[in-house]
Amino acid sequence: MKRRLWLAALLVALLSVLPIAASHADVPRWSGLDARFYDGPIPPPGDTIESVPLDPALSLTGAGPAFRVLYSTVNQHDQPAVSTGAVFLPPGPAPVGGFPVIAWAHGTVGLGDDCTPSALPRTARDNEYLSHWLAEGYAVVASDYVGLGTPGLMSYLNSVTTAHGVIDSVVAAHRMGLPLSPKWAIVGQSQGGGAAISSARWATEFSQGSGLDYRAVVATGTPANIDKLIQDAGPDFTVPELGPIANAYTAYILAALREARPDLDINSVLSPAGLAAANRAETLCTLALSDELAHMTPAAFFTAPLNSIPGIADALHDFMGTPSTGFDRPIFLGVGLLDRDVPPASTLSFYDQLVANNQNVTLRIYPEEDHSGTVLASLPDSTPFLRNAFAD
After folding, report:
1. pLDDT digits (tens, 9 = 90+) for 77-101
2. For residue 277, what are the domain limits?
3. Where are the alpha helices (DSSP H) in the chain?
4. Does some domain include residue 84?
5. CB within 8 A of 346, min separation 6: which ones?
6. Is 90 helix (H, G, I), strand (E, B) or coil?
7. Domain end residue (candidates: 320, 346, 365)
8. Domain total for the chain?
9. Mean pLDDT of 9-36
10. 211 and 239 inside one domain
11. Is 38 part of any domain?
């Protein structure tokens, strides 16, 4: 069966060379694997429950065989859960020992099922970026994260939960019968930059017993220590470095935090407009939500300071704190100084923390790049970084 699946995916890849262009108006395509209402058995984390050839319109221009996958992991309530994702192989035969693997941690797309990355065309930037890694000879495993296209709400910026989802996606991909090397690394941007860092911290621990060999992480546009920023949110909250996208980010954080921690009663400090925004955040994708909230400011979400809720600082740290110790492999951080989605100071101060904690970290600064531009601009630096990390 695995051989038939492989051949079917190869045929699909060979027959299709389609343009990649995404829009928030795209209708999801589930590739014959619609898991939004999955209620079947859930095996232990890291098992492939089902895999199918990916719809050719959703593949990457640099990919050979590609698959849509349903796999087991855990959610923000530490309960068994399922996630979907995509697996892309380079075209042509695998090298001896199999293709080394890159786990792609995607950026903010939204919390609703209509935002599921593996059910939509990749953006032109992500298509170029991921196709670059395929051309370098890496397979790409791209988790959607729990709750995007599967039951439950995606737990936005939740460090440990997202780490489980990313790591389990790689474990599951290695159980599909594909020619994959046990060597793997993590690459992420924006929300995915934070997810990549968290996944790197627990990569070895959470994949223990799987036979995988974790090597390194590349993170760009990384939102680090955002919990400390958010705990000061309230009616007087200002975020001068950020653009209008800050409203959507605020709404996603509030929606995800109140779902993960209903005991905090987040709604008690929200204004009517803030409550409406958090509700809309549960379904609207990023561009649509950002447009809808363009008239707001993050301060308008609140009638009282968030830190008036007892225990909020510890709750935020547990939910979205950024680990700064315990990394066992090299870290690459890329930051654009024109970034107005994630303050450059967030990544730069995180770098200082890592250095102070004697972690193996490389920083590259791109003075003329914004949030999105840093992704491709970082390739001349991150490509040899990963090449060296994979070398024996």
Report:
1. 999 999 999 999 999 999 999 999 9
2. 229-320
3. 2-15, 124-135, 159-173, 191-206, 226-230, 245-260, 272-281, 286-292, 312-320, 344-356, 373-377, 379-390
4. yes
5. 222, 223, 224, 225, 226, 229
6. coil
7. 320
8. 2
9. 61
10. no
11. no
Written as one letter, the residue type at 105 is: A
Work out whether the CA dihedral 32, 33, 37, 40 comes out positive or negative.
Answer: positive
- Residue ending a domain, among 320, 342, 374, is 320
Sheet holding 99-105, edge to edge: 48-53, 66-74, 80-88, 139-143, 99-105, 180-189, 213-220, 331-336, 361-366
**Structure tokens given for 356:** 């102070």
Same domain for 188 and 237?
no
**Quick one: pLDDT band at residue 276, thresholds 50, 70, 90?**
very high
Q: Are strands 213-220 and 139-143 parallel, antiparallel or unpaired?
A: unpaired
- On whether both 159 and 249 belong to a single domain, the answer is no
Buried/exposed 310-340: b ≥16 CB within 10 Å, e otherwise: eebbebbeebbbbbbeebebbbbbbbbeebe
State whether 82 and 139 are in the same domain: yes
Which two structure tokens, joined as six digits, stand for 352?
């200082």
3-state secondary structure of 183: strand
- In whole angstroms, what is the distance from residue 263 CA to residue 311 CA? 10
Cα-trace Rg, the chain = 20
Residue type, 44: P
**pTM of the predicted model as reported, rounded to 2 decimal places:** 0.92
One domain for residues 47 and 176? yes
- The answer to whether residue 26 is domain-embedded is no
